[in-house]
Amino acid sequence: MTDTVQSHQIEIVTDRFVMRPLQTSDKGLLEMHLGDQRVANMTRSIPHPLPPEYIAGRIERANEDDRENDFWAIDGSSQGHAEVMGVLKMTKLDRNQSELRYWVAPAFWNTGIATQAVDAILRANPQGACDIYAEVFQDNPTSARILTNAGFAYLGDAETFSVARNAVIPTWTYVRKMGAA
Questions:
Q1: Helical (H) or strand (E) element with 84
Q2: How many domains does the chain contain in total?
Q3: Is residue 157 part of a domain?
Q4: C-alpha separations of 64 from 10, 57, 148 in Å
Q5: What does the pLDDT read at residue 179?
Q6: Which helix (H) or strand (E) holds 57?
Q7: Domain span at 59
Q8: Alpha carbon 81 to chain centroid distance?
């Protein structure tokens, strides 16, 4: 696979970064960031430690025409930052709904990157969703604040399995009503 992205995903431009589809050249930074247990522990599906070729396989799947999820790298290279500062993922659900997940590399925590990325993806609404759902682990109140500040409404408590933690973790679930798309 080359760095030419075959994806039909839109690119989202902000004043601090560009959100673009994943590309092969992202492999090293993704391995570094997702190999950090602090990041893996705040996700459902990222294992820790990362198995060999895990990231290469994810990048390949992220660019398939029949993919189940859309991924955007938060690329700050135009402003002198890293090419991958984090990733947003959207999954198309039934009834014109989507689910949003995201992570930001620890070097960019508490810088507003996640807030701006979530706001940008909501403004673009690339999957044309009427409702966008998100969940955060209850031990991650910063991500909960990002969602509520972006207009997400709290729906309730739940729980989900975290591969990195090898445990069921309590979550808070949110929805953002987007209106008719």
A1: none
A2: 1
A3: no
A4: 15, 11, 32
A5: 73
A6: helix 54-62
A7: 12-129
A8: 18
